Amino acid sequence: MKHVADAGRRRLLQLSALGLLSQGLALSPAQAAAALPATPAGTSPLRRLGASGPLVPAVGLGCMGMSEFYGAPDARAVQRTLDAALERGVMLLDSADMYGSGANEQLLGQYLRGRRSHAVVATKFGIVREQKGWHVNNTPAYVKAACEASLRRLGTDCIDVYYAHRIDPQHPVEDMIGAMADLVRAGKVRAIGLSEAAPATIRRAHAVHPIAAVETEYSLFSREPERELIPLCAEIGAAFVPYAPLSRGMLGGQVAPANALGADDFRKNLPRFQPGNFQRNQAIVAEFAEMAQRRQCSSATLALAWLLGKGQHLIPIPGTRNAAHLAENMAAATLQLSGEERAAIERLFPVGVAHGKRYTDKELKTVEL
Ligand SMILES: NC(=O)c1ccc[n+]([C@@H]2O[C@H](COP(=O)([O-])OP(=O)(O)OC[C@H]3O[C@@H](n4cnc5c(N)ncnc54)[C@H](OP(=O)(O)O)[C@@H]3O)[C@@H](O)[C@H]2O)c1
Predict the structure, then answer these.
(1) What is the pTM of this model?
(2) I need a labelling partner for 328 at 20 to 30 A (CA). Which of 175, 176, 260, 288 fits?
């Protein structure tokens, strides 16, 4: 593990020498992009997490599957994946209090003990699990209690990005953001984010306190955010953090249909994995794999390279618990695509091409888009 610590320390020194770890610097999106340092050979290109946030490798790491949702994780493979991530810089690690009902935050807390500064940690509150199902709670009292619990599990005194996981239309978003801003003033949270929020909600929230990051599903199979959300984030200086950028593994080309998935794999219920839809989606993915082969990269690398080309403020968080997959995903940050290549990819994946919705109807009721 010493080499991981050394790599992380070198990266920290490099960033602090550039004066880029401080959070207080207010930059416009254009200034922020212009201020990005040239990438030293062998390291990942960096992107700024919000107008005045830290610089992180352009591709982050989604940690959800390390605790649940994609079948039982292998603890040693998870450890190797986290080691590989931290070797590549002070990376954005994405968690939530509901992943594994707290277990995912605990996992990161244990892993980061003694090297907290080697990662930028994002977590979320607001989805409250019940015996059967879940509900959304964004009340100010709940926000504060949830934050204390996340801090304890993560073993840290400050969360780098704290997201509202879902928006509760029953309560004014201003009240929730007010409570989150109190957490910033108390030094318990560095920056505020929203997940699956509509543009109008984001504007209302941003009027109360700067929104540093917006996390929403975005991939070749879910291109809807291109219309309004991605431009809005650029306008307000927020990072846009695409989740499920590989469409739950579909774009990586290594997934099975719903009827072959275990009961502990939540894709078993997702419309895009149901018989019929799955095969039609796979036919598109097979053509995409041929494009990737021509570029001598994996399908996952090509899908993420296309996505990164949508703006300097995009920082995708592909989920993996496999170090080799992590390397493929990070390789996207240095793969340059020509205009012709991008156009060919978009012809294969026009908006709305996916067969099946991205969530079940019940789950879709809690997203604002
Ligand atoms: N804000 C929200 O509401 C929300 C919702 C869902 C997820 N998220 C966050 O977003 C992150 C990413 O989303 P996600 O994990 O659901 O979906 P995803 O990133 O689209 O896909 C994850 C799947 O892709 C596979 N994969 C990863 N890299 C691969 C590669 N190079 N080649 C082939 N397969 C590859 C993974 O398997 P391996 O492990 O085998 O690589 C896993 O099964 C999550 O971890 C979570 O942190 C946020």
Answers:
(1) 0.91
(2) 260
